Amino acid sequence: MSALKAPQPTEKTPRTRGVSAMHFKSATTGVATKNMRNELNRLVNTVSDPETRKAFDTEMQSFFYLFTRYLAEKAQSKELDWDRIKSPAAEQIVPYDNLSESTDPSVLNKLAVLKVNGGLGTSMGMTGAKSALEVKDDMTFLDLTVRQIEHLNTTHRVDVPLILMTSFNTHEDTLRIIKKYANQQLRITTFNQSRYPRINKETLMPLPRSATDDKSKWYPPGHGDLYNALMHSGVLDQLLAEGKEYLFVSNSDNLGAVVDQKILQHMIDTNAEFIMEVTDKTKADVKGGTLIDYDGNVQLLEIAQVPSEHTEEFKSVRKFKIFNTNNLWVNLKALKRIMENEGMELEIIVNPKVTEDGVSVIQLETAAGAAIRHFKNAKGINVPRSRFLPVKSCSDLLLIKSDIYSLEHGQLVINPNRMFGTTPVIKLGDHFKKIAQFQKRFKKIPKIIELDHLTVTGDVYFGRNVTLRGTVIVVANEGQRIDIPDGCVLENRLLSGNLTMTVRPLAFWR
User: Fold this and answer.
1) At 324, is the secondary structure helix, strand, or coil?
2) Among the options 110, 217, 262, 392, which is catalytic?
3) Of 41, 376, 82, 356, whose CA–CA distance to 205 is shortest?
4) DSSP single-letter state for residue 312
5) 3-class SS at 336?
């Protein structure tokens, strides 16, 4: 492997550290860098096929550069100066309502849509690609995305391709799934994001012993790897050769992330090279990354970068009123310029993990939104909450599957019979955490069009045609079980204990 030199700590030493401590850190950094370089060289040499080895070598060089940056920043104790962090200026965040209507659908021919499709959905008990989960009317995340873009292409007679960025965890799954879209009116391209070795926290050495070592020894380095992977896969050059100038990026599990012509038109009219969709923060979003003004530049601040003494201030809506939806609009020519010239250094997020056999490891990751500071005339657009509908838990899934939403051309539309502008708050307990349990505990999804709040904890089962209204709290204590029968209506009701409710259909419990 053609090793990259480690960035050297600057001459300035932090006020809290002595010079001898800095020299020790620098020496330690040098040893760790050398050891990692030697180990990565050995990994590269375990690949026999020349073409495969070349690609793997490129990947390991990218990882090595990230690793050396991590060591250098750690040695310098590099942290953001909290006193220099300000809320974004008014001109840095544009209200969605201020955008003008788009009248020329032909600009869609300059657009491509990319879905970050690397997640497994392990938190919901899934083992395959999360985008293959059925979320509404027997349709998966991918089905809905394909339906949306196909409708866009046929309605406006344009050619918007779909790009799927997979990880080594989801690539095979995704290739198998997309075969069923062969006759749809859209082109689908897939490419794999990088595969980096997990790092032993104690030794700072890579976990895998060969390039073909078990999947558990590797990790996909976050969606910030998008730009690097686009470049190295050749997909960026392919899109530019096809005349595509703009890329709309979003997570595959965000059902609100649909193509918006007003945002695209605003990007073109204002020559913005990068747009991040943000939305107003609620109590559910306090950990979400936010846009800040740092020395006059707009950039992304993630909770992992926040010093512990400022965590509560970060979560507050007083100073940080918005958060990043990870719906991003990128000028492809600008991306090419940046990648070829100055490169894309994104803030490193250290993600600590423990392997199944108890080894503490770290994963060095980056966030796609952090790229905002590298682009000219970059800004945020404060969009309606309807553009952020992620499914991260079975509580989210219940809401999406319910009668609160219907589908139009693959897009979620809120039920006009819903009297309130907001959606109900749903909190399902640990018994509903995994998708298999969720499916077993609901014979049929309840009607919740008039629901404000639902909390369910413990061993609870719902029958068919159940209706929930107002505030409903169901608590089965440990060792107890509650069965809610077919046809039951619960309105402003607290249920607890150990009972099988035997009531006539549509009986009211108040």
Assistant:
1) strand
2) 392
3) 41
4) H
5) helix
Q: Which two tokens stand for residue 492?
A: 């402003």
Is residue 262 among the annotated active site residues?
no
- Short-list 354, 347, 362, 363, CA closest to 303: 347
CA atoms lying within 13 Å on the CB side of residue 225:
29
Please, what is the angle between helix 332-340 and helix 226-233, to 10°?
Answer: 90
> Which strands, in side-by-side order, build the sheet including 447-457?
425-428, 447-457, 467-475, 489-496, 508-509
* Contact of 449 with 427, CB cutoff 8 Å: no
- Paired with 116 in beta bridges are 165, 251
Mean pLDDT of the residues in the chain: 89
- Using an 8 Å Cβ cutoff, are 93 and 383 in contact? no
User: Tens digits of per-residue pLDDT, 325-348?
Assistant: 999 999 999 999 999 998 899 999
Residue type, 447: K
Order of strands across the sheet with 297-301? 85-86, 290-294, 297-301
Helix (H) or strand (E) holding 362: strand 360-365
Local structure of 311: helix, strand or coil: helix
Residue 374 DSSP one-character state: G
Do residues 86 and 241 lie in contact, with contact meaning Cβ atoms separated by under 8 Å? no
According to the model, what pLDDT value does residue 26 have? 54
- Confidence band, pLDDT 50/70/90 cuts, at residue 1: low
Tell me the C-alpha distance between 98 and 111, whole Å: 22
Q: For residue 228, give the 3-state DSSP assignment.
A: helix
Neighbours of 233 (CB within 10 A): 19
Question: CB of 250 within 8 A of CB of 149?
Answer: no
Count CB neighbours of 370 within 10 A: 24
Q: Which residue has the tokens 């940080």?
A: 320
CA distance 272 to 267: 5
Q: What's the rounded Cα separation, in Å, for the pair 257 and 149?
A: 12
DSSP-derived secondary structure for 433-444: SSHHHHHHHBSS
Q: What is the pTM of this model?
A: 0.89
Laid out side by side, the sheet with 188-192 consists of: 93-95, 379-382, 274-280, 322-331, 246-251, 111-116, 162-166, 188-192
Residue 286 vs residues 291, 295, 302, 332: alpha-carbon distances, Å: 13, 24, 11, 31
Q: Terminus-to-terminus CA distance in the chain, angstroms?
A: 70
Instruction: Please give the Cα distance from 201 to 132 (Å, whole number).
Output: 34
The span from the CA of 329 to the CA of 348, in Å, is: 22
Q: What is the mean pLDDT of residues 263-287?
A: 91
> Residue 431 is encoded by which pair of tokens?
């018994």
**Pairing mode, if any, of strands 93-95 and 360-365?**
unpaired
Euclidean distance between CA atoms 260 and 330, whole angstroms: 14
- Which residues, listed in sequence order, are joined to residue 280 by a DSSP beta bridge? 322
Question: What residues contact residue 380 under an 8 Å CB cut-off, 6+ apart?
Answer: 88, 92, 93, 94, 275, 276, 277, 278, 291, 298, 322
